[in-house]
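Action item from last week, closing it out:
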Amino acid sequence: MKSHISKLMFTVLAVLLCFPASCGKLDVVGKDSIRSFQAVLETVPGGAAADGQYGGWTLAAPDKSARFIWSRNYAESPLHDVMILFDAAPFTGAGLDAAKLPETISVIEDKIIVGTKLGNEELRYNGEPSPIASYEQIVSLKRNSIGYHGALDHYGVNLGDGSLFEWARDMAANDKDIVFVLNPEPFIRAGVDPANVAGWVFAKIFVDDENGKPIEVDKLLKPFDLR
């Protein structure tokens, strides 16, 4: 009887301590993020389009002021593998001195780009690449880049240095279907008054720290309701 109980307790512990990388069958966040991202692609005006300039797919905000771009092939990405690209004018109008931005943030003509490399792999597909198939590659190969934001009930892709692209787990129950999220600190250091960036909301939100404890942080948010 003792032996049976010990085995049962070990099994329960194994489940509780299971991480996505080693326990793919239990990766609820990763798998459900694919379902919800597909729902976003089917709802956002125009859906996702091929992006020849950056070698991937682009999902544009309804007002075209921002885009989320994810790579088709990490071995061929000319800049980042995941990124957001958005209008620079609101930041310039709020005091931005582009020369003071870190090298990780690019200003190209009238756009600002924030993103990160995920790897250098030559991605392989069963059939033709598609927007959702390329997102599935992130879940499969770069699972740590995908997270769940409980405070907003969102899934999201980590773009590095506290910036993200997020979307609602359930659009029917959420008025923020997609959100472009920026860490305001590098922009503040470059002269931006975050409270005066037109079209963006400067707010405190709760996120989980590295130990899973909720902490309050400053973010610049550009949310959209797609319905």
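Closing note: Residues 23-224 form one domain.
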